[in-house]
Structure formats: C-alpha cells, structure tokens
Amino acid sequence: MLKAGIIGLPNVGKSTLFNALTKSRKAEAANYPFCTIDPNVGVVQVPDERLAPLAELAGTSTIIPAAIEMVDIAGLVGGASKG
C-alpha cells in the first residue's frame, strides 16, 4: 500500500486537507498552532473506472482498488533540525 504523509508548518491546514482527502472528521482542525499532537492515519481507496471492465475481461467478480494510507503529522517548527 502506498503511504503518504502530510507535513508542514503549524496551523497551515494539514488536518483540514487530511479530513478532505479521507472524507472524515478524524483529525481535529482548529485555528491554533499545534492542535495536532498525535499523528492521524486514514486509508483512502483510489477509484479507477478501468477495474470493472478488466474484471469482466478476466472473468472475475473480485475487484480490489488501490489504496493510499494518509498520515497527518504534527506541525514542524522552523529551525528545529538545528537544535
């Protein structure tokens, strides 16, 4: 499974983007820095209209769409890597 992390500076909309991509309200999104402390994880299925015709051609009824695991990571602070 493909994995993707959403990272960035505090209070820029990472949790809002996570909620939109996962079609959930799993991540708290508020208007103050460091609202997200623990990572939020969600799995998103990737729709592909080619799968049904391929399954019919192959003679199977099983269709397994691709999925992406999205991780909403706490905000990064500028200069933190320098100690």
TrEMBL record:
UniProt keyword annotation of Oxidoreductase present: no
One Gene Ontology CC term in the entry: cytoplasm
Keyword annotations from UniProtKB, A to Z: Nucleotide-binding
Entry annotated with the keyword Secreted: no
UniProt xrefs under Gene3D superfamilies: P-loop containing nucleotide triphosphate hydrolases
InterPro entries membership: G_OBG, GTP-bd, P-loop_NTPase
Pfam families the UniProt entry points to: MMR_HSR1
GO molecular function: ATP hydrolysis activity; GTP binding
UniProt domain OBG-type G: residue ranges: 2-83
UniProt-recorded name of the protein: OBG-type G domain-containing protein
Source organism per UniProt: marine metagenome
Organism lineage string: unclassified sequences, metagenomes, ecological metagenomes
